[in-house]
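Input chain follows. Return structure tokens only.
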Amino acid sequence: MLNSLNNYRCGIIYHPDYLKHETGSHPENKERLLSILAHLRETERMTKLELKEPRSATLDEIQYIHSKECIEKARKYSELEMSLDSDTILCKDSYNVALRAAGGAITAVDAVFDKWDSAFALVRPPGHHATPTKGMGFCIFNNIAVAARHAQKMGKKRVMIVDWDVHHGNGTQDAFYDDPTVLYFSTHQYPHYPGTGWMDEIGIGDGEGFNINVPLPAGTEDSGFIASFKEILVPAAREFSPDIVLISAGMDACRNDGLAQMRMSVEGFSVLASIVRSIAKECCSGKVAAVLEGGYDLKLLSHSVAAVLDVFIGKEVEIEHHEPSPQVRMRLDEIKKIQRRFWQSID
């Protein structure tokens, strides 16, 4: 249940150039953003939100994460209208749109550093599958990873990335796998594309323990995701004490999304957003920047984004306890056993 108690300064980051990344009948298409914007206008949420146009990321900023060879391949393939892989279609505008998508994530971070409490970057193409060396899985550059490094360049030492997309953010994991200054937490369907994200992938070297994967079985409902956040994310986040919280906000864990087999509800995303916002309020003055990832059923996508924005605007969510299925409970207990080595407050 939602109750409006407070008004927070919140806005969206958007540019019409994002529509120029033409992918035809591909599930990651411009209708995704158009449906979100239409729903926000129809429900008059847009009147409660600020709007900021993003700049494009510079090549130096993209190189925070990606190799020069990766960047040049994206530029060349876009110019030739060649796909990066069987999933990742490019047109002549895709390279420049990808620069602006990464810039949108950077702009979201800057907005919350400035005067906003929270921001939601409505960008495409998405980013969390793009590794330091290659684009893949609909993604050209890793928007959230570039934004995390930008936050650190701006003086925020510890960055937490919460990835609730239904697919594991293999690219984000790769970017920070040995880095103790970025805590990466991901809930995702497993086994599923891209095949990574098992619970024993915990980071290496100095980064060991700062990569938390919660691979959940197909069919997991709200209760499983909420338990993952409450029992694993919250205690680890409190110990880590981030200076800013970023969200890879994929909405494709919704039931009937089409590209996965999870059973999240639209209201469930309100709860996840509320938990993340409460962490940010406790650790970093409520500063949260979300960046759109997946979500392919247009109605579910637009309603889920709106549900998250409702929380960012200031609506409070009543978090009810429902015990997850025995299969999910067993998985969470296994993950907690692994993560207790690094986070003492995980029960």
